[in-house]
Amino acid sequence: MTDATQYQVRDQVAVITLAQPPINGLGLELRKSILANLERACADDSVEAIVLASSSKLFCGGADISEFATGGATTAPILPQVCEALEGAPKLVIAAINGMALGGGCELTLACDYRIALPAAKLGLPEVNLGLLPGAGGTQRMPRIAGVPLALEMITSGRPYSVKQLAETGVIDRIHTGPEEFLDAAIAYAQELLSSSAAKRSCADKRVDTSELPENYFTEFRAAIAPKTRGLFAPERCIQAVEAACKLPLKEGIQKEAELFMECLASPQARAQQHLFFAERTVSKIPGINPKATPVREINKVAVIGSGTMGGGIAMNFLNVGIPTVILDLNDETLERGVSVIRKNYESTAKKGRLTTEQVEQRMALLESTTDYADLADVDLVIEAVFERMDIKQTVFKTLDQICKPGAILATNTSTLDVNEIARVTSRPQDVLGLHFFSPANVMRLLEIVRADQTGNDVLLTTVKLAQVIKKVPVVSGVCWGFIGNRATEPYFRESMAAILEGATPAQIDKVHTDFGMPMGLPSVVDLAGIDIVVQTRADRKAQTIDLDPTYGAISHKLFELGRYGQKSGRGMYIYEGRNKREDPEVMQLAAQAAEELGVEQRTLSDQEILERTIYPIINECARILEEGIAYRSSDIDIVLAYGFGFPVYRGGPMQYADEIGLDTVLAGLNKYRESLRNGEIWFKPAPLLVKLAAEGKKFKDYSPSGPCG
Fold first, then answer.
1. Is 127 a catalytic residue?
2. Would the pLDDT of 710 be above 80?
3. Count of domains in the chain?
4. Where in the numbering of this chain does the 3-hydroxyacyl-CoA dehydrogenase NAD binding domain appear (predicted)?
């Protein structure tokens, strides 16, 4: 008998304990073991009830996702068979839910007759986040037990629910709050059920109650979630599966669920979303650094230089996890305003019920403010978030070098500047690196960690682990202009501006991008960021831009010269009236004027050309980033673009997207524009790595670069 589960009998109750830490992933061995011990308990005449429990801190994290690629998920016994066996067992089966029960783990509990849980436990069906739907009866049993509204919301959102919420709908039968051990309480609950002659409860005997649903309930639900699920394949199949539960007997409904599950599994979106799932779990692995042999530094106090929007947002990340934080600004009024904004952000969260008033005050009590650098002498980490100019940042770091204690980590939040140049003005370059937060810093999950030439291994590893503490996804980058994200998306900006110069409207480009899956099109992004910021950020790159191609960013420069900075000034690519925007014919007049001055012929651009010209160069630049060793893995690049720049998650990031459509397709598209466009030789020359891998019939994920800093 495998040790994937533990088996014991106590007082006529068989206990089958999942024992595959840390998450009890429902791989083949665990499925076999559950089924074998279930059959053992059913065959034992001395056993009157069965408790399904866990030896880990959580109950079960769900299916082993890696088995979808290897075929293990379809090797008998498959998870639906295990759930069917639990439901069909002749003896009472009680799920003892001690922690998270997600995906297949939640489906296991739904197949049991009764469910007892600890107050902190949660149940969820997050398969939609992997481009899938629950495939072991979850879409059929949950509506029968909890009702359609909760089932639909739970399955299409992927959000876990507390046992308190689920107890109100009948999913959880008892919440254990007593002093006795949870397993003892579960066994006692099983005996209580037996003594009261409690009946078995099979979902096969239940019909979904639709009596109180409005006639157009499913249509209205689709419309309600449409803004959040735009472009996604799986949510609609989730809805269809729940609809089937309302119409079909359990057995036929599970068959329909299986058909819909396979549709999802075979889709490019499922491959893309699962790619990001694994990519996120890989980013913290740094080649060449043994985490067990590399001591990390203690971070007990943090300082942030700059109290603006970015500085305040950065500070909140540390306050949220209980780390005392000092925020410094040289202007008292600015500092007071920055602290006030932090408080308002917390109070706004409290009004939404996500924080208590006490928690707001606890976090604010951890915040100090100062105008004196001397107050930073005892911090373990300082993050500079001042104006994006090298001379200003170097001045800050010279001061920090003098003030901060030995061993303190000095980090810059720069989004484009050379971290090596910043490190050189200090006497401790081994303690310097980049921590590039994305705005709003207290919301965005991505953190680019920029490894300078002399950054110490312990410093790098410390910040990677700290990023996880503050609930960020850390991606390590080497030093170059823009690091991974801004460098990769520079061609996206360039070609979008070129398309406007050549005759495309901002609205056409926006539509092409949002149809592709971007949350906003590039012209709208530029207006939101500020055309002044966009132009100034590229001011020191004249040799790489306008000197190479005088048409580079011509329309953005025209708007900048006119003081049309976007939303902040009321006019940019569009005209803004409050939150509403409308097209501005003057933009196209300016484009026509600039085109005539620069000798650019205006024409009609197809949506396909705009898509290829703005997306393929991103892929091409990513290939260079990979080949140069700026990123460790192609999947790291995908995380940056998907989590920080809005590349649609259902396409998996630019590298996964290229792998999906074929590198030869991307290469052919680049060569087409290289030959047909006026400056094609400058901007569309394929990266050597792209050419090489396409010729070999390989994918980006097959390539292993040396990683940041070579």
1. yes
2. no
3. 3
4. 301-477
